[in-house]
Specification:
- The chain is mainly α.
- 63% of the residues lie in helices and 0% in strands.
- Helix 2 packs antiparallel against helix 3.
């Protein structure tokens, strides 16, 4: 998603159901991060959260490939060329953008 955004390639794909599915998986990951920011003693079924998060992470590669199949060859080539550099430049703290909570301890 970050690579599509940086390269301005997501525009035509935004309405497609497969991209919406990728957004949902991203939201699942954000939800898991949000739970980790809860104060000590917050009641949660940790096993269920870990199970659900692992299931989401397993689904991400297939969802990514489905979105790539929707792209034209020129856009896909641009994405594949720039994706490794974009991945290397990511700041782990950016995963918490838009997540409410005390993220200062993460950074």
């Amino acid at each position: 998603m970050r690579a599509l955004d940086h390269l301005h390639l997501a525009g035509d794909l935004l309405a497609h159901p497969m991209l919406r599915g990728l957004f949902e998986l991203d939201a699942d990951c954000a939800e898991a991060l949000s739970v980790l920011l809860r104060p000590p003693g917050f009641a949660i079924d940790w096993r269920a959260m870990v199970r659900d998060t692992e299931a989401t992470l397993r689904r991400l590669p297939a969802a990514r490939e489905k979105v790539r199949l929707l792209m034209g060859p020129d856009d896909l080539a641009q994405l594949l060329t720039h994706e490794p550099a974009l991945r290397e430049s990511l700041d782990a703290a950016e995963a918490y953008n838009g997540i409410q909570g005390p993220t200062a301890r993460i950074r």
